[in-house]
Design a protein that fits this description.
This protein has 172 residues and is an alpha/beta fold. It has 7 helices and 6 strands; from the N terminus they run βαββαβααβαβαα. The protein has a 6-stranded mixed sheet with strand order 2-3-1-4-5-6, with helices on both faces.
């Protein structure tokens, strides 16, 4: 199939599911429902005949490393999410980033990653926008701050992925 598989990774509670829900369903819930693994398919419109954006919303827990590894191995693009209110969640992305590079290789064109600082509506912050951007440039990936709650940059995030999908190099 022409599915383009996007994997959403990051620690528990950073808003991975909220971002996906916001984009797929257009809503937001305050209550926290832990995820094991959920998948979503969004058709990409008439120009992509049978194609769809396939989103895997993963869990942060160590118990599910095997599932995470499998999702990464099958993924075409990655969203690494942290919360700007919790520095630790940014640091916890490092092993995931390294695992992506290990499994998918070092070519950022073939394997796009977007670093996402979610909960930008909240204060106090522990991670500034500048600091997030510095990690992104070190990791050679795109960067966005988002709020699933206030619907900030959520469209832009998924649009970036759709643009990656359109470039044959990215989908290879
Ligand atoms: P996940 O474990 O990464 O999937 O996190 P969830 O999507 O379940 O969100 C965890 C908690 O953070 C929930 O209580 C959400 O309502 C809240 N949350 C998610 N995104 C945002 C956001 O952008 N801003 C704020 N203020 N809260 C958020
Ligand atoms: Mg979740």
């Amino acid at each position: 199939s022409r599915d383009f598989r996007v994997v959403v990774l990051g620690s528990a509670g950073v808003g991975k599911s909220a971002l996906v829900q916001r984009w797929v369903r257009g809503n937001f819930r305050e209550a926290y429902l832990p995820t094991i693994e959920d998948t979503y398919r969004q058709a990409l419109g008439c120009s992509h005949k049978a194609g769809a954006l396939h989103i895997t919303d993963t869990t942060g827990g160590r118990r599910y490393r095997g599932l995470q590894r499998l999702a990464i191995a099958r993924g075409h693009a990655f969203i690494l999410v942290y919360s700007v209110t919790k520095k630790q969640t940014l640091e916890e992305l490092k092993p995931l980033y390294e695992l992506i590079r290990q499994l998918k290789g070092n070519n950022p064109q073939k394997c796009p990653i977007i670093l996402v600082g979610n909960k930008c509506d909240e204060s106090p912050r522990e991670v500034s926008e500048k600091e997030g951007a510095a990690y992104a440039s070190e990791w050679n990936c795109a960067f966005l701050e988002t709020s699933a709650k206030m619907n900030i940059n959520v469209q832009e995030l998924f649009q970036m992925l759709i643009n990656f999908e359109k470039k044959p190099a990215a989908a290879a």
